[in-house]
Write the structure tokens for this entry.
Amino acid sequence: MRLRFVESLNELEPAAWDALTGQDDPFVEHAFLHTLERSGSVGPGTGWEPTHATVWDGDALVGALPLYLKDQSYGEYIFDWGWADAAHRAGIRYYPKLMSMVPFTPATGRRFLVAEGADRDTVVAELLRGARELAEQVGVSSIHLNFLTDEERKMAADHGFLSRRTMQFHWHAEGDATFDDYLKRFRSSMRKKTRKERRVVAESGLEVRALSGADLSPDVWETMRRFYRDTCMRKGAIPYLTNRFFDLAADSLGDRAVIVMAMDPEQGGEPVAASLAFEKGTHLYGRYWGCSEDHEMLHFELCYYQLIERAITEGMDRFEAGAQGTHKLRRGLMPVPIHSAHWLAHPALAEAVSEFVVHEAMATERQIEALADHGPFRRDGD
């Protein structure tokens, strides 16, 4: 097998890369990652320099690890600012570092991309060996593998990576045929609150539509771009996606994107709010939201209820709604562990982090158990 690093997915055939990506993750596909590169959302000046590891068997691409050289910790959602601060105070250089994840995308998915029929253990070992060699050559402080599957976390641990556990809120299918069936599993008080929230939107006069495929015209993407930028400005957040990303998405991402849009008939059907999600196979991922007007309960409708209803109707088994947000809990998105793996070059820093992640994992587990008791679903005896 032969290891090769590439600085752009433009160097690889899309079909060869996509053959590695599996059935349920739209973000590790060539189209999404390449759109980030082509749009300038990652690359020079962004703090995310692509340096993807690939493994070849002769002329065949059999493995890949999406990998970025970083000089900061923005856009990761598994936070290591405390580690960087501790390193700085100890006189240890923390940046640059190597990061494996989809930039700005807090979604669990495969990082070790391996061709069907290839020996997975062998390919993964080669990818991680290459990442370690690159780390030594470049002089980085650490390698981070974020939003791993549990299987991948265990594989990374076998290669000397520290396991870290954090938390998000996800919806998982439980065999419901309709949204009403879903609500029947709620406690009575929570079911009434949810129906009231949806009724407020239904009676607002707004038209709500889920757009996908051919319905995602350049004008729709332009509206989503405008809402995205407005949300970033309101929250004082960094707009990681460039304007060009939305221009390119109209051609490259239409088969994976879902935009739930609210329009006002009294304004000639003018869009007043929208959410952007991506889907593949049995998984649905909510990503961005924005609005030009404030309407009561509209955020919950577009970002959660519409997408949960879509997941039920389409027979999907998981919906992820992004990072953080305990308000998701009472809408039926329950706390789940999120896995990452980390290798640190400096022995003292590695020892300190190894102690930290053990205590953090125990605290996270207690938090998950406590929050689960406050979910909307009926308990035994209700």
